[in-house]
Automatic annotation (TrEMBL):
Phylogenetic classification of the source organism: Bacteria, Pseudomonadati, Bacteroidota, Bacteroidia, Bacteroidales
Naturally occurring in which organism (per UniProt): Palleniella muris
Domain of life: Bacteria
Keywords: Glycosyltransferase, Transferase
EC number from the UniProt entry: 2.4.99.17
Protein name, UniProt field: tRNA preQ1(34) S-adenosylmethionine ribosyltransferase-isomerase QueA
Glycosyltransferase found in the keyword field: yes
Length: 393
């Protein structure tokens, strides 16, 4: 499989800049808006029958119509109808932190963007970061992040073309330092949302609400610099519906990094190298997932980060093994999955490692046909976009 197999034209207006929003008008004529990520569209791909489902139907299989006589699209909340008691969903419970900071360079006051990646040494306040514009930042430079001048960092090393190691010169208990540091940051939304050059020149400021919108409701373990986006569709209402239906929920942790957004610079995908991401799979998660498989029920992976993690730790016997470490696994077609029976995903950008992961799971031809329909019918792409469910039936 080649890089060019995943090239297509994605209209800028089909990239979602915000979570799904519903408009409601009261009898008084007052209109208000509600964010309802679980009301985005859902497309269902059936692998064995090679069919694609897009519309709601009644108990007899008849297509439902809206008030205007048009077919009703499936909504994400309908996902519960495709699973039975005893099935298990695997979620990634990583937690996004406010990783994007803006500071100024000493003497010149040049504005510098800093994206925190991970803390290297707690006692020394060392952080691995990306800086922009990188050409202006050299070893020995100091960066100031607040008007009072109390949050200051010194560049002590170059790691990559844009990568730097910063030492924060902030003398206080570590918990206080992180609290003050994160208070200066904002949600690390993907560049295709906030950069006018990438989003069709649409204005999209980052707001305080984004810290909640770009966080899964089950997020627990801090360490991600981008959200496991498929999990953003799962509201508390959907999670409760799964619970009532007797569907189990298992949680693994993979701290999503920016490697998923790196450009692939080789046509031969076997030559592309992924960045490493830290992951943890506990004994508890393994027991729940493995018991599900032993009982003959289905295991559903929620998002590409979950398939990456589970495929990094599944044994040759098809059962999940405890794991704590790092993975740089790159999944693309053809690939034989060893664990999950079903998968939920978003609609991803062309040429991305994420769409390749999905195509490997669903089969290239079927997924490609699904993407063609998504483009034709105006589905929304990206982390705040619509969703796809792939079933092995």
């Amino acid at each position: 499989m080649k890089l060019s197999n995943f090239k297509f034209k994605l209209p800028a207006e089909q990239v979602a800049l915000y979570p799904h929003i519903e408009e409601h008008t009261l009898k008084s004529g007052v209109t208000f808006k509600l964010k309802r990520p679980d009301q985005c569209r859902l497309m269902v791909l059936h692998k064995k029958s090679q069919t694609i489902e897009m519309y709601r139907t009644d108990a007899d299989g008849n297509q439902l119509k809206d008030a205007d006589g048009n077919p009703e699209y499936l909504r994400f909340v309908d996902i519960v109808n495709y699973f039975d008691e005893g099935d298990t969903f695997i979620f990634n419970d990583t937690k996004v932190f406010p990783a994007r900071l803006y500071g100024t360079k000493e003497k010149t006051d040049a504005k510098i963007e800093v994206l925190l990646l991970r803390e290297l040494k707690e006692e020394m306040r060392l952080w691995d970061v990306l800086v922009e514009p990188a050409r202006k930042i050299r070893i020995g430079n100091k960066l100031f992040f607040d008007e009072s001048g109390t949050m200051v960092a010194e560049v002590i090393d170059n790691t990559t073309s844009r990568g730097r190691t910063l030492r924060f010169l902030y003398d206080c208990p570590h918990d206080e330092f992180k609290r003050e540091l994160f208070a200066l940051g904002e949600a690390p939304l993907p560049r295709y949302i906030i950069d006018p050059a990438l989003n069709g020149k649409r204005e999209r400021p980052v707001t305080e609400e984004d810290l909640d919108d770009f966080q899964c409701v089950f997020a627990k373990n801090e360490g991600a610099v981008t959200a496991p986006a498929t999990g953003l569709h799962f509201t508390r209402e959907v999670m409760k519906r799964l619970e009532i239906a007797g569907v189990n929920t298992a949680f693994i942790t993979l701290h999503c990094g920016l490697g998923n957004f790196n450009d692939i610079e080789v046509e031969d995908l076997t030559k592309h190298k992924m960045d490493s991401e830290q992951m943890v799979i506990t004994e508890e998660a393994c027991e729940l997932v493995n018991n599900t498989k032993k009982a003959g029920h289905r295991v559903c992976a929620v998002g590409t980060s979950v398939t990456k993690a589970t495929e990094s730790s599944v044994g040759t016997d098809g059962f999940l093994k405890p794991f704590e470490g790092w993975t740089s696994k790159f999944i693309f077609p053809p690939y034989e999955f060893g664990l999950a029976d079903c998968m939920v995903s978003n609609f991803y950008h062309p040429l991305s490692t994420l769409i390749m992961n999905v195509a490997a799971f669903g089969g290239y031809d079927l997924v490609w046909e699904g993407y063609k329909k998504a483009l034709e019918h105006g589905y929304r792409f990206g982390c705040f976009g619509d969703a796809m469910l792939i079933l092995n039936d």
